[in-house]
Amino acid sequence: MTSKQTTEKPWGGRFTESTDSFVESFTESVSFDQRLALHDISGSLAHVQMLSHVKVLTEEECQLISNGLGDIRAQIEAGQFEWQTALEDVHMNIESALVQNIGEVGKKLHTARSRNDQIATDLRLYLREVVDTTSAQLLKLMTILVDIADQETETIMPGFTHLQSAQPVTFGHHMLAWYEMLKRDQQRLQDCRKRINILPLGSAALAGTSFPVDRELTAEILGFDAVSSNSLDAVSDRDFAIEFSAAASIIMMHLSRFSEELVLWMSPQFGFIELGDAYCTGSSIMPQKKNPDVPELVRGKTGRVYGDLFALLTIMKGQPLAYNRDNQEDKEALFDVIDTLQACLHAYAGLMPTLTIKKEAMLAAAEKGYATATDLADYLVQKGIPFRDAHAVVGKTVQFAIQEKRNLSELSIAELQQFCDKIDEDIYQYLELVGSVAARDHKGGTAPNQVKQSVKQAREYIAALN
Ligand code: ARG
């Protein structure tokens, strides 16, 4: 464990002993931060361009370094770059290769810069791209939900509270409830993007740099909206990564709720839907089983993402200003958030179009649960009975229907009138499921007419973002 090794470190000047090999593997990050390589190179290219503009580097030096970085980028893209643990992280691996390839001039790349502002910049560039790809995934899934809603504006299912049949709703309305959650999720990502898209470069190690840097130019080249206002803050805080992970956790929470419903609906006891065979697996012992593993895994993976969020919050909580090596621990948690979230969104985009909707089963379930009891109460209120009294009358009526093992709409007018003489023949249209959903015809209501309008608005909303 205490053996020494001798690879020369870019920071080795003040050291007389080489790094312990255990310490080398304990402190390295290149095994995971190489994921940032292309963004690291983009940051370096912008940095040297700026340095040449302010005449800290000559145009020729800038050209040589840029060409050298371009070659390394090509090598990385071709999977031919050799990453070395002894060179610790992505930054020093690339810088060493540069010096090896183009000679002494390569050593000028790190002028007016520290790995502290470099890593903060790399992470922001990378996460900005992730926000954009995740946002596109969300918009895709939103479109899929709207397409289903469009097909199912008239499909009646029981709506639940406390997982007890409550009032009938349309399946299209239910799909648009999911859509609304994702719509807010996509907005949250866009909002978080504003705070990601700030340039830390120029903060150097912690205090700024004595070189006449033009940070606005670097920001412009890299497409950042602004430069950071305080160097100590810029190199040290990772709140932007935490904020993204919090937004990701909320998305996962929503996907987990969808998953819970899909799992319930697919059980033979509900029998509301079927998922495509390609998205299910069987049991090795029970031949009859077709299990909804994909939604179950999404529900399970939600726990991972929450855990990553907590890891990130905890990594930050004890750190004094400015940069501390603790921050290196942000990456694996953040990358796990991203990979898990994107995989789950991908799974959902594939899964949802395989849904078979079993309308008869949904309708039969809605008919069973006295779901139009509220409609009977509302009817009595229209006849002048106070709502509380109407509620009591309907309670008695439902009790009678349960004893009789019949639906409300199956009771005769004489039977209904036992409970209230204000009930007339016109009651039946209110007790029918179709009449019940159609009656909720206001913005945000479940009526097919409203669902159609919401579908139209949703399509316009998505189109405006694409
Ligand atoms: N690998 C480091 C990280 O991820 C890069 C910055 C290192 N800076 C330093 N002063 N050791 O945070």
Task: Provide an overview of this structure.
The chain is mainly alpha-helical. It folds into three domains: about 100 residues, Orthogonal Bundle (Fumarase C, Chain B, domain 1); about 220 residues, Fumarase/aspartase (Central domain) (Fumarase C, Chain A, domain 2), CATH 1.20.200; about 100 residues, Orthogonal Bundle (Ribonucleotide Reductase Protein R1, domain 1), CATH 1.10.40.30. Helices cover about 60% and strands about 5% of the residues. It has a two-stranded antiparallel sheet. It has a two-stranded parallel ribbon with strand order 3-4. Strands 5-6 form a two-stranded antiparallel sheet. Helix 8 links the parallel strand 3 and strand 4. The longest helix is centred in the N-terminal third of the chain and has 37 residues. The N terminus is likely disordered. The structure holds arginine (ARG). The site of arginine has 10 residues, from helix 6.
